[in-house]
Amino acid sequence: MTFYKNHPKNTNVQKQSIVYCLWEILWAKANSLGSSYRRFPEDRRRCWEAFRGPAPVADRLRCLDFFPWFLEGASGKDDLLSYLDFSDNPMAENPPWNYVYSANNQPDSIAGLLYPGYYLPEDRAKRIVELLEPKNDWDKTAFTKMITDVTSSVAPSIVQELIKAGTHEQWKGTDKEAWLLLKNWDGSNSLNQTAPTIYNKWVYLYLKNTFEDELGEEWFKGLLPTHLMKRTIAQHLKNDRSVWWDDLNTSDKTETKNDILLKSFKETVAALREQLGDDPSHWQWGKVHTLEHEHALGKVALLKSFLNVGTFSMNGAREVIDNRGYDYDDTGVYPVKNGPSTRRVVDFSDVENSVSILPTGQSGNPFSKHYKDQAGRYAAGEFRKMKLNKNEIVAVSSKLTAKPKDE
User: Fold this and answer.
1) Which of 128, 189, 306, 329 is within CB 3.0–4.6 Å of 150 for a Cys-Cys bond?
2) Is residue 279 domain-shared with residue 199, that is, in the same domain?
3) Residue 100, in any domain of the structure
4) Residues 160, 283: one domain?
5) Is 198 a member of any domain?
6) Are residues 375 and 276 both part of a single domain?
7) What are phi and psi of 5, to 5 degrees?
8) Are 360 and 372 in contact (CB under 8 A)?
9) Phi (first) and psi of residue 345, to 5 degrees
10) Confidence band for 17, pLDDT divided at 50, 70 and 90
């Protein structure tokens, strides 16, 4: 079935092969969730054990990526009512807008319903549409710029909720400078900008000051890195009457949205002054947003400089097209933990001049010249020509021949 999924003669064959492949996956998963759970990779086995017995709350919440839904089976309220036909799955097949895309966002449904799921926020999908809609003359160069785009279409609207909470006249000195930097920010996350540094710190402190008092430290830390929390931010900031705004640690007042947002901003500026100095022009995003490609043995001090690749100051951020995953915590630094595993642009009218880039290099051998020869270009958002012509490949390649010992 996998062959037919990858080599369909038409869309009907592809759909049928996908259905069979899904059944194979579900059957294998069902078997794995029984007594044979020990065959899981270590992280999945840990998650399974975390939900079978006592485990730290943070562990259980982090495992929601693998176990996204839990249904209550005792009362029958979560029993299945019916099965949707495959044709009712969300899909875009030759849509009237003339392109297809996905950014792991909530899809529309043919049936007119929004199916629940563990989706990411709309940020990247919104930016993709924003770039695609006004332009009809796309070429390879334009696409390379698009897939390394670092601008958020959503972050500026989130900032406006903070701006509405006060005015720049109420601030002085460094506070006022930081306020104006955020107010005038276009959502771009490039190395030398300072607004992304302020924004990410403020969002973290807003979330902490809003939710930690109700959830407790352990639950808050467990929920913080989830997709659910990412999707909460934009919607929650629009809700002026949310019960979460009140700080349960204060008994003499009921905090409002404005109270929490302004408190979080003041704490943001104070923390950044201590971390990066009094001058906001020195709070560049590239100082706190970095990438190091860590080898499995790279934590050994003697091997780190030999096996690890980097560190690089990085463009990009959470939920932009050039997507970078990092954690929020009190440190104020954002080492990249995940991102594009490869980038490729293939022009089917000129396949042999397609371009790509890898995070480090083609080889996993630290002694090879190709172990990390693409790392700098990857970090800079650059590409290299792919070799897809046989004669070109032969002309620049070496040949290794392995023979039995006796020959």
Assistant:
1) 189
2) yes
3) no
4) yes
5) yes
6) no
7) -65, -40
8) yes
9) -130, 115
10) low
285 phi and psi, to 5 degrees?
Answer: -60, -35
| Alpha carbons within 13 A on the beta-carbon side of 319 | 25
Give the CATH number, domain containing residue 202.
1.10.1400
Pick from 302, 301, 305, 283: nearest CA to 292? 305
What distances in angstroms separate CA 362 from CA 41, 161, 250, 356, one per listed residue?
25, 45, 56, 12
47 pLDDT higher than 50: no
pLDDT: which is higher, 245 or 83 = 245
pLDDT tens-digit readout, 267-297: 999 999 999 999 999 999 999 999 999 999 9
Final residue in a domain of this structure, among 265, 287, 309: 287
Q: What percent of the chain stands above pLDDT 70? A: 80
Tell me which of 1-5, 177-181, 335-339 is least confident: 1-5
Over the Cα atoms of the chain, what is R_g? 25
Q: What pLDDT is stored for residue 63 in this prediction?
A: 43
Question: Is the predicted pLDDT of residue 187 greater than 90, yes or no?
Answer: yes
Go through the chain and tell me how many residues it has.
407
244 and 355 co-located in one domain: no
Range list of β-strands (E), 73-207? none
Q: How far is CA 225 from CA 61, 70, 126, 187, 337, in A?
A: 9, 19, 21, 21, 12
Which pLDDT score is estimated for 73? 74
Query: How many Å from the N-terminal Cα to the C-terminal Cα in the chain?
Result: 42
327-335: long-range pairs with CB below 8 Å, 24+: 327/224, 327/225, 328/200, 328/203, 328/204, 328/207, 328/224, 328/225, 329/204, 332/201, 332/271, 332/272, 332/275, 332/288, 333/288, 333/289, 333/290, 334/200, 334/288, 334/289, 334/290, 335/290, 335/291, 335/292
Query: Is the per-residue pLDDT at 116 higher than 80?
Result: no
Contact 91, 111 (CB under 8 A): no
- Residue 256 lies inside a defined structural domain of this protein: yes
> CB neighbours (10 Å) of residue 328?
19
Q: Do strands 355-357 and 343-345 pair parallel, antiparallel, or not at all (unpaired)?
A: antiparallel
Average pLDDT rounded to a whole number, residues 197-205: 97
Mean pLDDT for the chain overall: 82
Residues 6 or more apart whose Cβ sits within 8 Å of residue 74: none
Answer whether residue 132 is part of any domain. no
- Whether pTM > 0.85 for this model: the answer is no
Can you give the residue range of the structural domain that contains 280? 155-287
Domain count, the chain: 2
